[in-house]
Description:
Elements: H1 9-18, E1 26-27, H2 28-34, H3 45-55, E2 62-63, H4 65-85, E3 93-94, H5 95-104, H6 111-121, E4 131-132, H7 134-154, H8 166-176
Antiparallel strand pairs: 1-2, 3-4
Amino acid sequence: GNAPPGVDPEAFSWFQTVDTDHSGFISVKELKQALVNNNWSSFNDETCLLMINMFDKTRSGRIDVHGFSALLRFIQQWRSLFQQYDRDQSGSISFSELQQAFSQMGYNLSPQFSQLLLARYAQRCPNPNPSIQLDRFIHICMQLQSLTDAFREKDTALAGSVRLGYEDFLTMVVTRML
Length: 178
């Protein structure tokens, strides 16, 4: 069939392939089966759920062809950014590349915090030089942006610090978890 108005024909074609149950919607499971990192590993469940939720206008836990088309554009933009920061073209982002990416994106994060993120999101394998794939890079950046926005809402004086009660902190985090 022909692509609906406003949907890229290539995205429509891929949508039809990814929609394995022919429901007219893409689920987290179907999206995970369709997306791969540079090392051919599947995208992480959490990242697929974050992205589905981002493009799911009906809050049904799945996306239609329009949401899928927008999601593909979103992923392509992240893939371009990822490749820009993957200076050694290894297909993954190392600690130093992650530090530089954060800096260029305007985040003033300590090496210790970047190391913590890398340890949390790197693939679980014995590697003296952990690195992250595209899916985890997207995940980290989406969460950082969301939590930064929440912080800025509280930091009205742009002082770089806020005073929060425990429940205010929890509310800020929980409402921003995508």
